[in-house]
TrEMBL record:
Pfam families: DUF3611. This is DUF3611 family protein. InterPro entries: DUF3611 (IPR022051). Keywords: Membrane, Transmembrane, Transmembrane helix. The chain crosses the membrane at residues 30-51, 63-83, 112-136, 160-184. It comes from the Bacteria. Signal peptide: none annotated. The keyword Isomerase does not apply.
Length: 189
């Protein structure tokens, strides 16, 4: 009985367990991706700001920057989905089965989150790979054993920062994928 003297329909044990699992995974995924994602976005912004203005350095970097930005945007979408997981967990704990989200729709949202993380990871990998190719091309033009008097031929810190931003975004998406797969496995039981 609740406070008003009415019989409350209890939430089944399995549903409560699923809600707590979803809440835990949503919280961990949200905060890890948010913290790591802010760092990745700041690194990307610093790298792009440092590269802008030098047209010679930017040659061929447009695709890398586009992919890196796409990876960060996918990360933002993933963070929003993890926040939604926490909200779904709250709705699951409601005693009325009419209001409670269905298992099928919850699993579908988790699968969408996995796809978002996979797309973001792919974009970030493409961005990192293409910019590493640009850096390799730059370094391969320096003769072996030659003294370098023109330091513009060497990779600049902002160029390395762009690679770091991409690899950090890859880490964020990896975290999202691992937690999403764990969540799917737990909820399929």
């Amino acid at each position: 009985m609740n406070r008003d003297g009415e019989l409350a329909s209890p939430v089944p044990q399995g549903v409560r367990k699923a809600a707590s699992t979803l809440k835990l995974a949503g919280s961990i995924g949200f905060w890890l991706q948010l913290i790591l994602g802010v760092l990745a976005a700041v690194l990307l912004l610093l790298a792009v700001a440092g590269l802008s203005g030098d047209e010679k350095r930017l040659q061929g970097a447009g695709f890398s920057i586009f992919c890196a930005t796409g990876g960060v945007l996918a990360l933002i979408a993933s963070i929003i989905l993890y926040f939604r997981y926490m909200k779904i967990a709250q709705l699951i704990q409601i005693s009325s089965p009419d209001i409670r989200p269905h298992k099928k729709s919850t699993l579908q949202i988790i699968k969408i989150g996995l796809v978002v993380n996979l797309v973001g990871m792919l974009l970030s990998i493409l961005g990192a790979e293409s910019f590493i190719g640009i850096l390799w091309g730059k370094l391969s033009q320096i003769p072996a054993g030659a003294a370098v008097y023109n330091t513009s031929q060497l990779p600049q810190p902002n160029e390395i920062l762009l690679v770091l931003a991409n690899t950090h975004t890859i880490l964020c998406h990896f975290v999202g994928i691992v937690i999403g797969l764990w969540l799917l496995e737990r909820l399929h039981r």
